[in-house]
Amino acid sequence: MGETYAEIKLIANKKEIKKRLLVDTGATFSWINSKTLKQLGIQPTDEEELETIEGTIIKRKIAEIEIECFGRKGHTGVIFAKRKDSEVLGVHALETLRLEIDPFRNRIKKSRAIKAL
What we know:
The strands form 2 sheets. Strands 1, 2, 3, 4, 5, 6 and 7 form a 7-stranded mixed sheet that branches. Strands 8-9 form a two-stranded antiparallel ribbon. By secondary structure, it is mostly beta strands. It has helices at 34-39, 91-96, and strands spanning 5-12, 15-23, 30-33, 46-51, 57-69, 72-81, 88-89, 99-102, 107-110. Strand 5 and strand 6 (72-81) form a beta hairpin.
């Protein structure tokens, strides 16, 4: 299975920035470079401890942002990524936008139906 990317738009304070992000189903929240979030005028609302894939606990600032993909908009949690961190689209954003991964074509697509249970 290959990597899956998503073309998204970050929206805040009447500004928009387009990004191509790796979809990471192991990440709860999306990780966006702090510089990009500051360009949009996003301010951190809190700081959270996060566990990396290696099991290390790190601290990062968090906030909420509006995102758009395939014409669907929603608000999602976002981590203020440092320069060495990867930028990724997390599961919360996928669920908020009602998107799913097509593993056979390595792409995301609109969900046909939301799972009720």
